[in-house]
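FAQ: What does the model actually see?

It sees only this:
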Amino acid sequence: MESNRHYKFRVDNYPLMKQPNEGQELYFGEGLNYKTGKGLALDLYLKDGSRHLIHYSYLIYAEFETKDNLQQVKIFQTTHMIIIKGYRLEVIYEKIKGHNLEYIKESNPTEIAIADDNEPFISEIEIDWRSRDGKKND
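And it is asked to produce this:
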């Protein structure tokens, strides 16, 4: 097989291969209850030990809001809605927006004492499954 002689591989076109400038956030990161990285899906770890995988290709809409000092990120997908509740969730929202989040996990309330003051803290993840007619399945 012959390669395309007009194709030039340029490292500077790929952000994963470039070193960040001083003051820039690293592309990959890990916190108490999340890990960033390029992926096709987001793995959800719940307190009960179950795991749920949601594929980014089914993402329809997401929103970020603050209510009574508690923040939440809502992820609407074709078959369900995920609500992530906690504190300092702006980073989680931005990473979901760019499909740059590998996993998130619910934390026990006692873990807030060991969480960094600038780090997102996820207190609850709700998953609402929807039927074909768009109504919530109970």
